[in-house]
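pasting for the record
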Amino acid sequence: MKTWFITGTSRGFGREWAEAALERGDQVAATARDVRSLDPLVEQYGDAVLPLALDVTDREAVLVAVAEAHARFGRLDVVVNNAGYGLFGMVEEISEAEARAQIETNVFGVLWVTQAALPYLREQGSGHLVQVSSIGGITAFVGLGLYHASKWALEAFSQSLALEVAPLGIKVTLVEPGGFDTDWAGASAVRATELAAYAEAHEASRNRPTARAPKGDPTATREAILEIVDLDEPPLRVFFGKAPLGMAEAEYERRLENWRRWQPLSERAHGDR
């Protein structure tokens, strides 16, 4: 039996994975901004669930929540940083408040939970941090610049983190989903006020093939996430969905072609040393 701490369990992947863990007999500290959304979990699974009201941007509240979960269950085996949202808008359109809120939740929120959990995981000499990233953490599309910035930041510090904590027996996995049938682009999303100058770009973005492709089934990720957390040697990165691998291959081919093309200039910039 494993003990999980999962942020953002009111819906989406967080809810699916909390239910998957509970269904197989694990224990879950489930967090949500509105703790009432967790009532059905408590009604069905009783003491196996610890419902916690949590805004991950509040560092002190995060420290308290993680401590409460550890006190209740005695250990933390899987920490899932799932809380986050999408911010839609061209870079010029994003307000300061919108930009700061996106980074506060998608980057600092994950950082605070990670830092709060690590002392317990170090003491145990074990544990698994699951960071929910996105295909948008390795590539970029029009109209999602600040969202991409948040996920690229998550990817970077999580890769460094994995190197830092591996000698301590702690594992890190970045889950990089493609498009899924969640409300990521719906009620949970924030949309900046559009500028007329970008009208054509917005229209093209809404009609890009990846935006109109069939979405994955979130319930199908239940078995996948359980398999990942049960592995002795889980991957640092794993895609969820059919489309991300092809998108990643195309992205890295473009990068390599660009870097190779400009390698002579790069070498000249090095100097004669």
